[in-house]
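User: Show me a protein chain along with its predicted structure.
Assistant: Here is one chain, sequence first, then structure tokens.
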Amino acid sequence: MSTIKNHVQLIGNVGQEPTITNLESGKKVARFSLATNEYYKDSKGEKQTDTNWHTIVAWGKTAEIVEKYVQKGKEVGISGKLKTRSYTTDDNEQRYVTEVVADEILLLGSKGDK
């Protein structure tokens, strides 16, 4: 059961071009947003869409895959874990951010997709 602790799997569409950062240590990190959609019918029977946005962070080899193959609009599957971090703004306010740290990325859609 230890393998299901803090485990996230998402399938969605990339919201913007990934940003790739090369750190001084030589490590590479990729960041991008991912939109996941849920569909339901409202009380009038009309189809509705509920979109949730997730911040995805990938390191090392996974970041290299993102850099080569992932672009805005592409459908991808993500497997990873949730990570919450905090930071202080210039106005001295404490902020918290929850991100998905991707261990694996599965490229979905047809080969002809741009």
